[in-house]
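tokens incoming
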């Protein structure tokens, strides 16, 4: 399967378990690997199938800013569900990074979902 990768899209959102965490927007980095068939028999390179990168990034931002969440696991799942519901990929891997624990680069979750 072919992949289109969007790496480290920066999004600010309300996230966290405690009220203190949710009191202000936090920076997340979101990466997605969109799995789809990019080969279309009988078409030229200019006509080949691809994902609409802007549509994907707009959808991710919309999903993340529509409501607060407690866990990055829920964030990753909601992104994957939206991408598959809008048929922007056959399968998707979503990685979400959060910067909330001192003396670490980040905490992350990665999931893969398919239609």
């Amino acid at each position: 399967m072919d992949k289109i990768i969007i790496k480290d899209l920066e999004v600010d959102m309300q996230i966290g378990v405690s009220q203190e965490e949710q009191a202000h927007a936090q920076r997340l980095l979101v990466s997605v690997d969109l799995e789809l068939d990019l080969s279309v028999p009988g078409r030229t390179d200019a006509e080949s199938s691809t994902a609409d990168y802007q549509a994907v990034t707009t959808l991710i931002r919309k999903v993340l800013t529509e409501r607060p969440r407690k866990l990055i696991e829920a964030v990753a799942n909601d992104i994957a569900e939206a991408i598959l519901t809008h048929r922007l990929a056959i399968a998707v891997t979503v990685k979400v990074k959060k910067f909330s624990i001192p003396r670490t680069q980040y905490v992350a979750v990665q999931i893969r979902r398919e239609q």
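note: The beta strands are 2-13, 26-36, 91-98, 107-114.
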